Fold:
Amino acid sequence: MNILNNIAQGLEHSEQVVFKDLFRSENSKLTAVCLNRDVALPKSIAFTKTKIVVVKGEIDVNMEHFSYRLAMFDTFNMPLEETYSIQAYNDAIYLVLKEQ
Structure:
């Protein structure tokens, strides 16, 4: 958890999305993503099995036909091959687990 605390401290001064790879293997990758309030992750598409776990704050996951607000400890499985964007409702850190 010290890594996430260090990331959270750096988040206070960042106006951009901050990515920190935490783990990588042949079959999976775990990344911490940090967003300040009202900062948005540009539109993306999930091409592999992807799960999001919010560890601090709240984020909005926006897709073409729906939007979800996720808070601390909420999880979300990204639909494959759909366009989405993520915006911080308030300062947030979430984990992204991608599996090949």
About this structure: The chain is about 10% helix and 60% strand. The first helix runs from residue 2 to 11.
